[in-house]
User: Fold this.
Amino acid sequence: QVQLQESGPGLVKPSQTLSLTCTVSHDSISSGSYYWSWFRQPAGKGLEWIGRINASGNTNYRPSLKSRVTISVDTSKNQFSLRLSSVTAADTAVYYCASSVAGTSSFDYWGQGTLVTVSS
Amino acid sequence: QSVLTQPPSVSEAPRQRVTISCSGSSSNIGDNAVSWYQQLPGKAPKLLIYYDDVLPSGVSDRFSGSKSGTSASLAISGLQSEDEAVYFCSAWDDRLNGPVFGGGTKLTVL
Assistant:
């Protein structure tokens, strides 16, 4: 069964860049037709999709975050990454990575999530 | 404010049946498949239903999904204490060109 694991700093200063990596295990990030997504969930709130990438590097981003977001993939490390620039306290949330089969909108595998706090 | 609308909470007694509604629009539920997720406290979401009414392997058949027009529902029968969780609906949104979610419904098993 595919496993995803987020990693990265838990504390980021305002105006700096948030960087997270999702490592995929028990399957190749290049196998099949998958999209690899990032989500976030502020405390006590709902899920927000940030964007996605496939193994070929094709990306889609949430329009409201597009100017600050970059998602990249490293097939040699079986990882994909999120960079969110110019962060503010409003970006404080639990960040999840997840996978979906291309052509579908359901997310079948999720990482455990990692809390990122934006604070000085 | 979430794009899809769910009731904030529902409650029901053990062994009973409960339904959770999810309302959207023509750009999401009306034109695309609905998924449902279960989120236990402090855990990642778990896919319960996809393609409106299909259960992934390993998901109990006490869960079922349906859709009509721009609304969808999740039904849980034979309620158990372990079903206490927050449930989210989701669908692709053609305007966003990405998935949208409901605000989540907290289920309490009395």
